[in-house]
Specification:
The protein has about 120 residues and is an alpha+beta fold. It has one helix at about 100-115; strands at about 10-20, 30-35, 40-45, 55-60, 65-80, 85-95. Strands 1-2-3-6-5-4 form a 6-stranded antiparallel beta barrel. The relative contact order is 0.19.
Length: about 120
């Protein structure tokens, strides 16, 4: 039997993001979001981060709307250029109401994928 620790299904996405390490500095870093779940995101970036680093992430979704969330780094791995680091982050606090739009997109896409996987029934 497969041992899967994940509580939430991941969904592959392609969103651009900016983020900062919440350390009092105003440095912003570019990232792309590779996948997401209800509880977290996978960021591809050029900036390394440490486990438990607090992040502020601004995600650009459809219609150029922005979603701001507070998160913390769960893990960091080396990856291939152009984004030599991959960060797994846990969403700690969705800062604005647009997070509901992002979550709705995730839920809608996940439901579509699941319904496509269901076998056809014969009447």
């Amino acid at each position: 039997m497969e041992n899967n620790k994940r509580k939430h299904q991941r969904k592959s996405v392609e969103f651009n993001a900016l983020y900062s390490i919440d350390d009092g500095k105003d440095d912003l870093y570019d990232a792309s979001i590779a996948n997401m779940s209800e509880a977290g995101l996978c960021l591809r970036t050029g900036k390394i981060a440490k486990r438990d680093d607090p992040l502020i992430i601004i995600i650009t979704i459809e219609n150029h709307q922005r979603v701001k969330v507070h998160a913390k780094v769960a893990w960091c791995q080396r990856a291939d250029p152009p984004h030599p680091h991959t960060l797994g982050v846990e969403i700690v606090d969705p800062v604005d109401n647009n997070f509901d739009l992002l979550l709705d997109m995730y839920i809608r896409e996940t439901r579509v994928e699941q319904s496509e996987e269901l076998p056809e029934t014969v009447a």
